[in-house]
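Notes, p. 3: input format for complexes.
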Amino acid sequence: MAMNPFKPTAGKMPPILIGRESAIEEFTEGLDNGAGAPGRIMLVTGQRGFGKTVLLTEFRRIASERKWQVISETASPGVAQRLIDALASNGPHIEQASISPSIGIPGIANASLGQINLSSNTIPLTLRNAISKRLQSGKIGKGKGILITIDETQAASIDDLVAIATAVQHVTTSIDETDIPDTEKKGVAIVFAGLPSVVNDLVNDNVTTFLRRALRCELDNVPLLDVKNAFLESVVDSGKTMNDDDAWRAAQATDGYPYMVQLVGYYMWQSAQRRHSDVITGDDIAAGIADAQIAFDDAVCAPALDGLKSAEIEFLHALTADYPKATAIGDITSRTGRSRSWVNKYRAALIKDRVIRSAGHGLVAFAVPHLGEYLKRTA
Ligand SMILES: Nc1ncnc2c1ncn2[C@@H]1O[C@H](COP(=O)(O)OP(=O)(O)OP(=O)(O)O)[C@@H](O)[C@H]1O
Ligand SMILES: [Mg+2]
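Output follows (379 residues plus magnesium ion):
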């Protein structure tokens, strides 16, 4: 029985990781070029569904292949403490500790209610010791090290990030100060991933100079030609065929949005499968695109609007005329006929909810991909 190769599920590795070659190259060079290489501290940003989680998975795979130890964490209150626990445990791999719901309020100290008080200096020190101890253990070979990946960085408290940054920085400095040859020095690599807007907030904060120095990697739409080729290759590998024109049409419908690539691929493949056919036809593509659109609306657009106030929805409708371009605040005032303070109030609320983002001076735009189109369609 043939199996659908496409993976339209959050965090699931796609059959082909499209268009991330340069990020992977920079990361790999960071590991190979030893302490001080830029790729050893990375900050990956991207909107929902652009492939941050799967890129971190790929980074860990690459590091493991090079005999590095890997630790995978998702940011939420207490992440620094969980890192310490993970480092102190004995297993060779320490995957995903349990995640408590995010209650951190970025920028406000001690937002981790009911958790350890992270404002004290003990966490960075303990974390630093835990990393050092782990590095010194016989489990890590010469020239190798520990890779820490932190997903959902926007949910981390500033305190946690500072703790982690301080610890990594100190460990790195003390390794640099030893007279071991560079090729034999053990090291730490750390990759943070998160939503663009919130990470920007963190990066602008004075305390996180560390993050500002990180190598930035902004995940964008992937090239349509690569999407087309990935469709052709994945389809053939799965025992089916499709022609070049159809693959191109399917690729165009994805807009290069990685999650949409998996949705369109999944549903076009399934459409042929339902007919017990090994050939994906033009009709299968059309059906696949339609099904993918519905699934996308359900998975991304509808939840984004869920729970918004009617005033916020009204605000959003005033943006659709300009979509996909940004909208001037002045136009929102005139289109809605509301006061400037009404517009400012809901602008702030929607930015906080990450539904819209500031797009330069006096401009706002949708922060959720395809949302403008969805609102137009469902108006
Ligand atoms: N480079 C890529 N090529 C093809 N498909 C991809 C790529 N990156 C991610 N995907 C697919 O897109 C979907 C979303 O990926 P992922 O969960 O990693 O996104 P994310 O940025 O972590 O999203 P979120 O912010 O919601 O956590 C998955 O179905 C995944 O298989
Ligand atoms: Mg993710």
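Residues 224-304 form a domain with the Helicase, Ruva Protein; domain 3 fold (CATH 1.10.8).
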